[in-house]
Structures are given as structure tokens and as C-alpha cells.
Automatic annotation (TrEMBL):
Superkingdom classification of source: Eukaryota
Disordered: annotated span: 1-40, 102-155
Coiled-coil intervals: none
Protein name, per record: N-acetyltransferase domain-containing protein
Organism: Odontella aurita
Residue ranges crossing the lipid bilayer per the database entry: none
Length: 374
């Protein structure tokens, strides 16, 4: 009985090794060496493999595959780059159509290979580098090494997502930035030293009493500078790449502010009225602009103002009348507040457009975003 089992296994191995699947097809489907084949050979080999996987006998596999006529006549130098899974999952015609590298599309989902014959594609030597690319469709599409058929919406989505990922590769996040809140630049040196000493004493007191230090501690005086520090790849030290001047105290109640809030947000006004703080200026170093620093700063400022008991953040956007800066603020949650023009010192928009946005801090924000104070 043991001999019969061994003999059956040997026979099965011999049958598999002598199957009609060409060695170059096996290589294209995931082997170590790239090979070349015609679309019809690829189609028939993959069909036979699917039939075997479904449990058909060798005779049934041969009978079925031999009954499939060649659908495409392509020169031997044509190359098909297709993953095994994609071909097995596709209809028989689609398993060939659209995967001939270099064939022109007629705009109806076909490659122009059927009927009057396919145009000659690039030479074998020029296309050999493609065969070393990933054979999985998703990987090949994402790498851009293989032209994706226009009829495949799924592959087009993958390419778009890959391009978006590439464009966002230089965008920064809160994890890349160290935020530091400091006294205003005009603060005298002696005052800065006293504030630094006070901050260290507060930290020491929290450590001794095993209390959690405040998430944000703004310097006395009502104004502060929020600075962004970033460590560039290959550099040893962090450098300051942006700074933002802000107020840190809840401003006095104002009828203009209350009316603006009720008009824009349809909010019921508390007895104390709406409390606001302001953004005085925003500056980002030119070499890091366009990497999302401004959006991150608005999130951090909103959290700082919320922690200081302020309900809204106000500012004056001065873009010399182009409207681009105003639109940018609107895209980041701010609304135009014409009632505040005089109060903010910009009558009739002389120095810019007044804008307002509610403050907010999400749960766990200060667990992931650290703001180092003083």
C-alpha cells in the first residue's frame, strides 16, 4: 500500500512537471526570471491552471483548453504583464484585452488587436525592465511601471490614491512639530527670566505633589507667541520654522461680537456673552510653506484659546484684496464677520477682512499634541 501511494505521488509530480504551462508563463506569474509569451499562450496556460485548481482531471483540462480558439494574433515580441489572480478572476476575453503593453486603445475598451491585427509594440529589449516590476496589479499600477487600461476604474482609483500619497509625502503633521509657547518678542530679558523661573517652579510643584502639569500655561500679560520647531532629516538640531502671535486672555464682552455669533452660528448667548481671543499674526518660513504648517497652527491655537476659556478666535486677514487668504481661512473653519471691522481696527476693510471661528479642542488632543510652555 505504501508503494502504491508513493507511485501515485510520483506520477502526479511527473504530470505536473510535464504540463502544458510554458516555463516563461510561470516566470511572468511570479517566478524568479522574467520570460516572454504571446497573449494566447498566456490565456491558455492560465485557463488550464484554473481548471486544475477546480479539480478537473488532466484529460478534461486538455479537452477544454484545446477547444478555445486563439482570440488575438500578436507578434512574438509583444509582452503581457498580468498577475495570475487578475487573469483567473477575469472573463476570458478580458484576460487578454487591455494588457498588451504598448497596444493602442480604440476607446471602447479594446486594444485594436482584434480584426485587422495589432500594431507592433515596443521591442522585447525595451520592455524587459517591465517584467522585473511587481506582477500584482495594484503594485504595478501604484509604481507607474505599467500602463493601466482606461476601462479599469478600480486601477485608476489606485493610481489617483498613489499620486495623492506622493503629493502628501512632504506634508507635516503634529507628530513632526514641537510646539512652544513663549512670551512676546518685545518682553524684556529680566521679565523672560522671571517667567522661566516661575514655569520651572510650577513644574517642580506638580512633580512633588504628583499632579499632572497644565496642558497649556500662557505667560502673564495677555499675549504670547506660539512657535513651531521642526527637525529636518539629517539635521541634529530642531529649527524654528514658524511663529504665530496670539492673545491669551478672554476679551471684554462686546455687542458686535454677540450679534455676530448669533447671526453666524444661531447660538444662544450666555449671560457673560461670547468671549474671544485673537490671532495677531502668522508667519511661516518660505522654504516650508505649502506643507500644512498653517492648518496645524490653527488647530493648536484653537486648542490654546479653548483651554483659556475663550469661545471664539478672531483675526484680520489682509491679502491685499486678492481674496486668496480669506478663502484659505474660510476653508479652515473661519467666517467673515463684517460687524467686527471697526472693533478690530479695520473700518471698511482698510487693513483686511475680519473673520471669526469657534474654538475647540478634541478629546485627547493634548495627549498627542504637546505644547511646551516657556
Amino acid at each position: 500500500e505504501g508503494k502504491s501511494v508513493a507511485a501515485a505521488a510520483a506520477a502526479a509530480e511527473e504530470e505536473a512537471s510535464s504540463s502544458s504551462v510554458p516555463s516563461d508563463v510561470k516566470n511572468i506569474s511570479g517566478g524568479t526570471e522574467a520570460g516572454l509569451t504571446t497573449p494566447y499562450q498566456m490565456h491558455r496556460a492560465l485557463l488550464e491552471e484554473r481548471l486544475r485548481m477546480e479539480g478537473n482531471s488532466a484529460a478534461e483540462v486538455e479537452a477544454t483548453s484545446s477547444s478555445v480558439p486563439p482570440k488575438v494574433e500578436v507578434d512574438e515580441d509583444s509582452v503581457v504583464v498580468m498577475s495570475r489572480k487578475a487573469a483567473l478572476d477575469s472573463p476570458l476575453d478580458e484576460a487578454i484585452s487591455g494588457f498588451v503593453v504598448g497596444a493602442e486603445s480604440d476607446g471602447d475598451g479594446t486594444t485594436g488587436a482584434e480584426g485587422d491585427g495589432a500594431d507592433e509594440v515596443e521591442s522585447t529589449e525595451e520592455l524587459k525592465p517591465l517584467l522585473s516590476a511587481p506582477t500584482d496589479d495594484a503594485d504595478a499600477a501604484a509604481s507607474g511601471d505599467v500602463e493601466v487600461p482606461s476601462e479599469s476604474a478600480e486601477k485608476e482609483v489606485r493610481i489617483i490614491e498613489s499620486e495623492r500619497s506622493d503629493r502628501g509625502a512632504d506634508m507635516l503633521g503634529h507628530s513632526d512639530i514641537e510646539w512652544r509657547i513663549r512670551p512676546p518678542r518685545e518682553t524684556k530679558r529680566l521679565k523672560r527670566l522671571s517667567l522661566k523661573l516661575a514655569a520651572n517652579l510650577i513644574r517642580l510643584d506638580c512633580k512633588v505633589k504628583r499632579n499632572k502639569p497644565p496642558n497649556v500655561l500662557c505667560p502673564k500679560g495677555g499675549q504670547a507667541v506660539l512657535e513651531a520647531y521642526y527637525k529636518e532629516p539629517g539635521k541634529r538640531r530642531k529649527r524654528r520654522i514658524a511663529r504665530f502671535g496670539i492673545t491669551t486672555l478672554r476679551g471684554p464682552r462686546s455687542a458686535e461680537i454677540d450679534e455676530t455669533v448669533m447671526e453666524l452660528y444661531d447660538a444662544s448667548m450666555p449671560l457673560a456673552g461670547a468671549g474671544v481671543a485673537a490671532i495677531i499674526y502668522m508667519f511661516v518660513e518660505p522654504d516650508v510653506r505649502g506643507r500644512g504648517i498653517g492648518e496645524l497652527a490653527l488647530e493648536a491655537i484653537a486648542a490654546v484659546h479653548a483651554s483659556q476659556g475663550c469661545d471664539f478666535t478672531v483675526l484680520v486677514a489682509d491679502d491685499d484684496g486678492s481674496g486668496k487668504l480669506v478663502e484659505w481661512y474660510e476653508a479652515n473653519g473661519f467666517s467673515r464677520a463684517p460687524r467686527l471691522q471697526n472693533m478690530m481696527g479695520s473700518p471698511d476693510g482698510k487693513f483686511g477682512t475680519t473673520m471669526i471661528a469657534p474654538t475647540s479642542v478634541s478629546e485627547g488632543f493634548f495627549e498627542t499634541v504637546k505644547i511646551k510652555w516657556w
